[in-house]
Amino acid sequence: MTAPALFGQMTALADPTRSRLLLALERNELSVNELRSILQLPQSTISRHLKMLSAEGWVEARAEGTSRHYRLASDSLDAPSRRLWHIVRDEVMHSSAADHDARRTQAVLAERSTRSQQFFSTSAGQWDRMRLELFGRRADVALLGLLDESWTVADLGCGTGAITQSLAPFVERVIAVDESGAMLAAAKKRLHGVENVDIRSGRLEALPLADGEVDVALLFLVLHYVSDPARVISEAVRVLKPGGRLLVLDMMPHGRQDLRQTMGHVWQGFDSATLGGWMQGAGLESFRYTGLPADPDAKGPMLFAASGKRSAVAAKSSRKKADAVPLMKTA
């Protein structure tokens, strides 16, 4: 990096507000409105500081419908910039303002989750009808690649258990996981008497499954509800056996802003490059992303099926980490 460029980056970090912004964006992707709530500053002030941070290469933005989400441009920072940020971060993170920002960040993230959970809590009884109306019946074609009688399959974000019910007759065991109590109650009613189904309550970011417990993990129309898809994917990979597969079925990028309000969607679909980066970063290989045929009866966005296989190398690496760090048992 040239001296003028470095001086420009130093100038950008000299303002305490911009340093607090970078600290908030280091671990979370946030919108301008969310940053306004976290730093308790006017939107115009937040936007002005973000503009300077972006010009100096500190942050990167992602368009999501009519909104823009920002995060620290950690992947594109060179070594001098990283050293500079580490020096500034160590000073800023111990301030009372940064502590308050961190608390408000947790509240903002919790609000994201609450919006989705509110939808689930009030819609469990109508979920099957709504999903059929929005996405149609052809989405189930993605399951044809999973059917092997010896497999244990994890249906992550199982909802009312419709997919678990379809899988159960064809595989050895299905583990159905969901966070919503209302959805799990509906799933238990639907799956009553199905002996090879194990229903568990848990978060996608901290699954109630052991390392390498399943042959296949399925994220079926659920990834767009989570705040951090990369973390959810990494956790799904953790529970896969060596050579196991993750299958993601979700929406292709779209402009349906109404789905945020009516169904609590956090993400407006995923493209191949973004999803592939997350899956490969989590240790999956043989990544595939395929758009599904349009269903004339569906009113929602186009769907895709994406898959990846857990490599033996990634599995060995995860086992070493597990040996080094004691695991907490899930009740």
Structure in words:
With 331 residues, the chain is of the alpha/beta class. The chain folds into two domains: 3-94, Winged helix-like DNA-binding domain superfamily/Winged helix DNA-binding domain (Arc Repressor Mutant, subunit A, Orthogonal Bundle); 125-324, Rossmann fold (3-Layer(aba) Sandwich). Helix content is 46%, strand content 20%. The chain is built from 13 helices and ten strands. The chain has helices at residues 3-14, 16-27, 32-39, 43-55, 79-92, 96-123, 127-135, 162-167, 181-190, 229-238, 258-263, 272-281, 312-324, and strands at 30-31, 59-64, 67-72, 152-156, 173-178, 197-201, 214-220, 240-251, 284-291, 303-310. The strands form two sheets. A seven-stranded mixed beta sheet has the order 6-5-4-7-8-10-9, with helices on both faces. The chain has a three-stranded antiparallel beta sheet with strand order 1-3-2. Helix 10 (229-238) links the parallel strand 7 (214-220) and strand 8. The longest helix has 28 residues, at 96-123. It is globular, with a radius of gyration of 21 Å. The chain starts with a helix and ends in a 7-residue tail after the last helix. Mean pLDDT is 83; it is low at 315-331.
